Amino acid sequence: MKLLILGSGLxxxxxxxxxxxxxxxxxVILADMSQSQLETGIKQLAGKPGSQKLGVxxxxxxxxxxxxxxxxxxxxxxxxxxxxxxxxAVQAALEAxxxxxxxxxxxxxxxxxxxxxxxSSPALVIIGCxxxxxxxxxxxxxxxxxxxxVDELHIKCGGxxxxxxxxxxxxxxxxxxxxxxxxxxxxxxxxxQLTKEAxxxxxxxxxxxxxxxxxxxxxSFMPWxxxxxxxxxxxxxxxxxxxxxxxxxxITVLKELGLLSDTPITVDGAQISPKRLVDTVLYPYxxxxxxxxxxxxxxxxxxxxxxxxxxxxxxxxxxxxxxKQGLTSMARTTAFTxxxxxxMIACGELTGRGLQHPERIITGPHFERLVNELKTLGITFxxxxxxx
Length: 388
What we know:
The chain has helices at 12-20, 35-45, 64-71, 83-96, 111-118, 135-145, 247-256, 274-286, 329-346, 358-361, 364-376; strands at residues 2-6, 27-32, 54-58, 76-79, 100-102, 124-126, 149-161, 186-190, 193-197, 204-208, 212-218, 236-243, 265-267, 270-272, 294-306, 309-320, 354-356, 382-387. The chain is an alpha/beta fold. The protein folds into two domains: 2-127, 3-Layer(aba) Sandwich (Rossmann fold), CATH 3.40.50.720; 135-329, Dihydrodipicolinate Reductase, domain 2 (2-Layer Sandwich), CATH 3.30.360. Helix 1 (12-20) links the parallel strand 1 (2-6) and strand 2 (27-32).
């Protein structure tokens, strides 16, 4: 099978590493518009198992005809791109009629047009198929299916530096050069209804084994989860991002000052987005340097009833930077997931068409296959059952 991986930044080389090691894979091509990014990717993967299968190509996704033509030469595509570039990748795959796995989700404004395009395409495109979104929702649904009734669902996940440093105690491990910060309110489920809550609110202290005390704050619950049969009776649902303590308070100040806004303002006659300015100013402080290491923490809890008794099920994972592979934990947990799913599509294990969320299609034995393969790569989930 032949794989095309879009993006040679923080995620793409990790997806390539995972694919190259599969004996069924004959070719892996990394595509990026930046020659320097491609050279970095090649250097990172040199000498790794299967590296003889690797090639690179320069590609600007804004040139859609060229992107579509390139995609026709592959069995499956993995989009390892910042969110702002995701829609172009999905659009090209749909027009090429080729399956694609997107590690992120296209912008909300782009989704209606993409769904319309998907109606006339034979391609299966799975969006939000990395760590979060992706594994978070898959594990949430897996736990929910084990309960007879689900009352509450709580997701906590985050990638943090192994050693926090000022000013934010955070380093960018996904999404290019822009901080993963948003201004708008977030979805939560209260009393069975979707409602909005201020992002970065609801701060709670959480402890993970071998990591210590962190904080978790309101991000956004994925609203489409309420359409799943096992979550029809959900009363409370939250999705929170995990960081080292103190992060949410600092970001809240930026938000209150209007510095997370994408709406351009005029400064000395020039138009500039406050968020873009913040990204540019802070990037030197939040860029992963050569010797930096990260870790990923993950906890999903489903509360409800099982066998007539109150019950809480939990899935937990702590993953760390892999020094042997030279890969961040975020790249391992995110890109390996997308690469495994892409190969499941290419070999015919996963079938379908249209725009799909992973929890709709990666179920039963497909879910078990994914989790088991991640386990062989050292990414493991501890599942526990607590009677209440």
